[in-house]
Specification:
The complex is a heterodimer of chains A (338) and B (218). Helices cover 47% and strands 12% of the residues of chain A. Chain A is an alpha/beta fold. In chain A, strands 1-4-5-6-7-8-9 form a seven-stranded parallel β-sheet. In chain A, strands 2-3 form a two-stranded antiparallel sheet. Chain B is of the alpha/beta class and 218 residues long. Chain B folds into two domains: 86 residues, Methyltransferase, Methionine Synthase (B12-binding Domains), Chain A, domain 1 (Orthogonal Bundle), CATH 1.10.1240; 119 residues, Rossmann fold, CATH 3.40.50. Chain B has ten helices and five strands; from the N terminus they run H-H-H-H-H-E-H-E-H-E-H-E-H-E-H. The chains are: A alpha/beta (338), B alpha/beta (218). Chains A and B meet through strand 3, helix 7, helix 9 and helix 12 of A and helix 4 of B.
Chain lengths: 338, 218
């Protein structure tokens, strides 16, 4: 019997496996639900700010048979907050979100301070990873980053950001350079703390918003810089992008991550046809996981695997009100196959 | 040498499509100096350009960033031409709509796009922004006597808020007068039917058609 870590590693190394792993990385791909919080008794939203609570909750995800990985954090506001944005920590049904921006224009990027990972929630994430590392070696630890475009458009008004990619192209690139270098620093420290894999979610850098040209110029360029730096540390990467891919498949092919993940609007079959030789992760509808029946979720899970997903995961972050029984039915569907 | 009215209208329209704010400003000033009616400049120039942009968006030649830049050019032109509109035109009653992203969600790119398209189509839009407390939709709809409410969310977690808005409209006794249209990533026609909304739109261009249909506007 393969341990979860061995199974995932075999997939990443393109070896054969008994069945696809079922993971949910964390970060934007939230896997914490209200019911799980109740089961563990860990305080929420306090766990967003406390390394031990964060690690305990991450461990509970695996222990309760939800997913075959540990992952932290449970939101996509760590980087933005470290860059000076105001964050509302949310509740046990709403995720943390940015409520105040740091700058008004890409031209002001020099006012943004470098990440201070000695304190604050960046530190919490690093300590949580260290803590998870002490829990044995069978479960892969996934460290999460908010992608370059999503981070940049979390510390200023996104509409202005998108427009300035053209209107202030030079400064936009300078800003993205800065953000990406800082994310590399955060990634390296997560690896040093013990992360086995780094997952990067860039939901704001979609092909639908940017179009192929800007997607290439901004999304692909800076994602690849980040991926290459992580690869140089010998650590595999998962990249999750939201939205339709059909206009940007040629550009997506150029993203050098080990694994690509899409949301439920992309059919796994279509993704497989367009990305023949890539490892794909996905994409069980989070709407069905929250509001559907376990047997329907099991069906979707099997369909994802049959359509070519190498790793099974929810298509997006889980809605926090998703019933535990529904969440578990993904793994259930895969293990019953044996 | 001054350009003909037709040539200036084309310049206005092209300036919007090509996202050339300076061209639009120049053409607007020239147009006003030549004494042509502001109303035609807006409708056959700026709005025509924005309609062409939304056509290109529908055909996937243009993307969200393109449309945002086109709308900037249109709004800059509107600022110059609107003050020259005769009072009677300004007072012409336009159907009013309230739009916003429901509580708990801060993704508003899609909502902004829908708002731009609806304004271009002649609706008077009241934008409540994002992460909007649900009761605010009802309060605003009553305040401005809105004909419709547009709700958007990109997150599964915040979808139930849309059903709450429908119910709050009922409680306020104005459900019959106010059409509810919804949209956003996880939303579907089926969900709209389930919660008793009047319509679902998968994108901004369709949203305009949907609202016009619901309000019986050609």
């Amino acid at each position: 019997m393969l341990s979860p870590k061995e199974r995932l590693n075999r997939v990443l190394n393109r070896d054969t496996v008994d069945r696809p792993p079922c993971i949910c990385p964390g970060g934007m791909m939230n896997m914490i639900t209200t019911e799980l919080i109740k089961v563990t008794g860990v305080k929420f939203p306090e766990a967003h700010m406390d390394a031990i609570m964060m690690a305990d909750l991450a461990e509970a995800v695996y222990e309760n048979g939800c997913f075959e990985n540990y992952g932290v954090p449970f939101c996509m506001t760590i980087e933005a907050e470290e860059f000076g944005a105001g964050v509302d920590m949310g509740t046990n049904i709403h995720e943390p979100h940015v409520v105040k921006y740091t700058i008004n224009s890409v031209k002001e990027w020099q006012q943004v301070e470098q990440l201070d990972l000695q304190q604050g929630r960046g530190r919490v994430v690093l300590d949580a990873i260290k803590h998870l590392k002490t829990k044995g070696n069978d479960v892969p630890i996934i460290g999460n980053l908010t992608g370059p475009i999503s981070t940049a458009s979390s510390i200023m008004e996104p509409v202005i950001y998108y427009k300035e990619l053209r209107k202030s192209n030079i400064e936009a690139h300078e800003f993205m350079d800065f953000v990406t270098e800082e994310l590399i620093t955060f990634a390296k420290q997560q690896i040093e703390a013990g992360a086995d894999i780094i997952a990067i979610s860039d939901p704001s850098g979609t092909g639908e918003i940017l179009g192929p040209k800007l997607f290439q110029e901004f999304a692909v360029t800076y994602l690849n810089r980040l991926i290459d730096a992580i690869k140089a540390e010998g650590i595999p990467t998962i990249v999750h992008i939201c939205g339709q891919m059909k206009n940007v498949y040629p550009q997506v092919k150029e993203i050098r991550s080990d694994v690509l993940s899409f949301d439920s609007i992309v059919s796994m079959k279509e993704a497989r046809e367009n990305l023949l030789d890539r490892l794909l992760m996905g994409n069980v509808s989070t709407y069905t996981i929250e509001f559907g029946e376990p047997n329907k979720i099991a069906e979707l899970t099997k369909k994802c695997a049959a359509d070519g997903a190498n790793i099974i995961s929810p298509a997006c972050g889980l809605g926090m009100k998703s019933p535990l029984q529904n969440v578990k039915s993904m793994i259930g569907a895969l293990t019953k196959e044996l | 040498m001054s350009l003909s009215k037709e040539a200036l209208l084309k310049k206005l329209s092209d300036g919007v499509v090509n996202m050339e704010e300076e061209e639009v400003v120049e053409a607007c000033n020239e147009y006003i100096e030549a004494g042509y009616p502001a109303f035609d400049g807006i409708m056959e120039g700026l709005v025509d350009g924005m309609n062409r942009a939304s056509q290109l968006y529908d055909e996937e030649e243009y993307f969200v960033t393109d449309v945002l830049l086109c709308s900037d050019a249109m709004y800059i032109g509107l600022e110059i031409l609107s003050p020259h509109m005769p009072e009677s035109e300004l007072e012409r009653v336009r159907p009013k709509g309230v739009i916003g992203v429901v509580e708990g969600d801060t993704h508003d790119i899609g909502k902004n796009l829908v708002k731009i398209m609806l304004e271009t189509a002649g609706f008077e839009m009241y934008d409540l922004g994002r992460d909007v407390p649900l009761q605010s939709f009802i309060d605003k709809a009553i305040e401005v006597k809105a004909s419709f409410v547009c709700l958007s969310t990109l997150m599964t977690t915040t979808m139930p808020g849309m059903a709450t808005v429908v119910n709050l409209l009922k409680e306020a006794g104005i459900r019959e007068q106010v059409k509810v249209v919804i949209g956003g990533g996880p939303i579907s026609k089926k969900f709209a039917d389930t919660i008793g909304a009047d319509g679902y739109s998968p994108n901004a261009v369709e949203a305009v058609k949907l609202v016009k249909n619901l309000l019986n506007i050609a």
